[in-house]
Design a protein that fits this description.
Layout: H1 14-47, H2 50-69, H3 77-89, H4 99-113, H5 123-132, H6 137-167, H7 170-199, H8 208-216
Helix pairs in contact: 1-2, 2-3, 4-6, 5-6, 6-7
């Protein structure tokens, strides 16, 4: 009996090669769609009909959900399907317009606040440890206080749109949720960076962009 000839793995087919080249482009396009939907929300919430805003929120939520739950090309249908469904069925659900700013700020406040419980490492302390390793007692106290500050900021940013929504002043609600809220976050982020450089002159400090890059690598939901 003749020995069996070894079979070398077959080269990738043209279809596989084409699919591998399309994958990065498709992922980039999917992320770009999510960013476009997010950026379209503020002007839509202010100028468009409530039903259109609800539909946009549904499309954005479907984009985020499909990013985690689906990898098939059919996920491209999810945003359009969700938007169409809510546009047709929930044209009177204007209260949904007021939910995202409250829910997002509550979620961010919870993300910071949960780490202040006994036995846990405050979130800002974890950021600092990622940069410096072991922290001095002074820095540990400072980062814990800063975690409290971020928690209170997001709690206030959730309460303000709720009060404005209940007051019926939609213009003030739009101004806060689409401008003032972001300015407060930017002011605390950049202002704290300047203050920290002045207070802790003897320490090395990373740039704000580098800090954001490090945050992206962290597991924010680590216990």
């Amino acid at each position: 009996m003749l020995p069996e000839a070894s079979v070398s793995p077959s080269p990738p087919t043209l279809r596989r090669a084409a699919a591998s080249h399309r994958a990065p482009g498709a992922a980039f396009a999917w992320r770009a769609l999510g960013i476009a939907l997010f950026l379209a929300y503020p002007p839509t919430a202010h100028y468009a009909r409530p039903a259109a805003t609800v539909a946009l929120l549904a499309a954005l939520a479907a984009n985020l959900a499909a990013s985690f739950l689906a990898r098939h090309s059919a996920r491209w249908l999810a945003p359009a399907a969700a938007a169409s469904l809510l546009f047709l069925e929930l044209t009177r659900a204007q209260w949904l317009l007021y939910v995202p700013p409250i829910a997002i700020n509550l979620a961010l406040g919870w993300l910071f606040g949960r780490t202040l419980a006994r036995g846990r490492v405050p979130l800002i302390t974890r950021f600092a440890m990622l940069e410096r390793g072991t922290l001095s007692e002074e820095l540990a106290r400072y980062t814990r206080t800063l975690t409290w500050l971020w928690t209170l900021l997001f709690a206030g940013a959730a309460l303000a749109p709720l009060v404005l929504a209940l007051s019926g002043n939609r213009d003030a609600w739009w101004l806060f949720t689409n401008l003032v809220n972001y300015l407060l976050v930017a002011a605390l982020f950049l202002g704290e960076f300047v203050y920290r450089r002045l207070r802790f002159r003897n320490y090395r400090h990373q740039s704000p962009l580098r800090v954001l890059h490090d945050v992206r690598r962290m597991d924010l939901f680590e216990r």
